[in-house]
Amino acid sequence: MGDLAATGLxxxxxxxxxIIDALQxxxxxxxxxxxxxxxxxxxxxxxxxxxxxVEQGDxxxxxxxxxxxxxxxxxxxxxxxxxxxxxQDWYENEKxxxxxxxxxxxxxxxxxxxxxxxxxxxxxxxxxxxVLAVGTTPRS
Length: 140
Fold this sequence. Notes:
The protein is α+β, with helices and mostly antiparallel strands.
């Protein structure tokens, strides 16, 4: 089992790190970002996709992302040239996927499970936003 906060990679050994929809599951988001910073070469780039709450601290949002705000976290971890942008197009595409799954009349247990997840996700969808964050390690 991997650990996002302890990769085992050598210091300054990679030019890029990509985290796709996984950061929110880490117990310490800052520890993960610090590990990314450690393994990146000077001028290396980190790219993250995940969700953030529309309103910080919203009790209706999962505790995993309730207080997540990538820009200050990336800066605290030592990243420069930090950019965070909401990706409304990704949000809309994912929403359409869930709606299409709900429209399929299929009693297969896998489809029923997917439809149950679709209902749970769609019920709280407007409380979250899809984001893309990029940070660069400072050059020496």
